[in-house]
């Protein structure tokens, strides 16, 4: 049942079907397969957050790294945020190799969540996650490099980080690549490339991309 649920949620062998996947995960858990706790928790999180949280905690305490990270995110999304809980869970997940947890820790340090802004630590976490292939970490490193926050200002390096994330399909980075191509910052100006990346970003819902596309159209008419 767990394997069938995994196939269904990832669209292996057939089209992706989350509802069918959740039925399999529930069945697996009902048969005593503890490995289904995390997946079943995801399935019931909206309708039964208390039960989902209990399952996540059980999964995390048994070493499930994705569950550990999810608990950290829940702490961070609480009202008010529980920064101490978030740091504890996310640092555990990061130590266990979770790149996305490193990125989130970097963001917390960059924004001063739960303490003072620490851009050096933010850059460190982003750098570690980027080396692991995390697209959002590359994008965030690009922002630090572009603005000179916590690192030496380097538009070319910023562009390289943005481009890596954009090629991985990360829409905010696609916007940043298009924006820098349009301005000729960190790279040679290239209206065609700017349009290509901005169009992808706009299609993904990054609305500011339309403004730059309009500007490029107006420039092309002159």
General description of the model:
The protein is 73% helix and 0% strand. With 222 residues, the protein is an all-alpha fold. The radius of gyration is 21 Å and the shape is globular. It starts with a helix and ends with a helix. The mean pLDDT is 95.
Compose a concise summary of this entry.
The chain has 222 residues and is mainly alpha-helical. It contains 13 helices and no strands.
Q: How do the helices and strands line up, and which of them pair or pack?
A:
Elements lengths: L1 H9 L7 H13 L6 H8 L4 H13 L3 H13 L5 H13 L3 H13 L7 H13 L3 H13 L7 H13 L3 H13 L7 H13 L4 H14 L1
Helix pairs in contact: 1-2, 2-3, 3-4, 4-5, 5-6, 6-7, 7-8, 8-9, 9-10, 10-11, 11-12, 11-13, 12-13
The radius of gyration over CA amounts to 21 Å
> Whole-number average pLDDT?
95
Number of strands: 0
Structural class: mainly alpha
Overall shape: it is globular
Low-pLDDT parts are none
Please provide the ordered H/E string of secondary-structure elements: HHHHHHHHHHHHH
Kindly report how far apart the N and C termini lie: 63 Å
**How much helical structure, as a percent, in the residues?**
over 70%
How much of the polypeptide forms β-strand, as a percent range?
A: under 5%
How many alpha or pi helices? 13
Largest sheet: none
Features:
single chain, 222 residues, mainly alpha, 73% helix, globular
